[in-house]
Amino acid sequence: MFQTIKMRAYLLTFIVFLIVAYSISTFITPESYFFVFLPTICSVALFGIHRKKYKKIKALNDFILYSAAALVAMGKALHQVNTVNKPIEYIVDTISFNINIVTFFIFLVILKGIIALYEFKYAS
């Protein structure tokens, strides 16, 4: 008896979840899924799995973000002085216009924010 009530409660919860998910999905565009929800969910999942080793994740995250920022800054500076450097120009264009790389950087920035919040809350 208790088992059937428990199963019906799980089924009702699942149906309510599907209805809520459907109603939310009618208001949210696919771009929001790709650029907001996917990087946020991946960042939270990665940090949740590797919370004990967050300093290694932070170091790798900082390395990738600061390297990309330095390359883009070099590309912009070279463009300002009208100097042509094909490898840096190619990298800057790839970073700027490739949707997958832009989404990856959104993921890294959200992860950086989660790590900063964790350090603010739990580190001394």
Descriptive report:
By secondary structure, the protein is mostly helical. The chain has one domain. It is 86% helix and 0% strand. It is built from five helices and no strands. It has helices spanning 2-25, 30-49, 54-80, 86-97, 99-122. Helix 3 crosses helix 4 (86-97) and helix 3 (54-80) packs across helix 5. It is elongated. The termini are far apart. The model has no long low-confidence stretch (mean pLDDT 85).
Layout of strands and helices, then pairs:
Layout: H1 2-25, H2 30-49, H3 54-80, H4 86-97, H5 99-122
Helix pairs in contact: 2-5, 3-4, 3-5
Keywords: Membrane, Transmembrane, Transmembrane helix
Number of domains: 1
Distance between the termini: 52 Å
Order of helices and strands: HHHHH
Q: Give Rg in angstroms.
A: 21 Å
How many E strands? 0
Structural class of the helix and strand makeup? mainly alpha
Strand content: under 5%
Can you give the mean pLDDT?
Answer: 85
SS summary, helix count: 5
Helix content: over 70%
Largest sheet properties: none
Shape: elongated
Contiguous runs where pLDDT drops below 50 for at least 5 residues: none
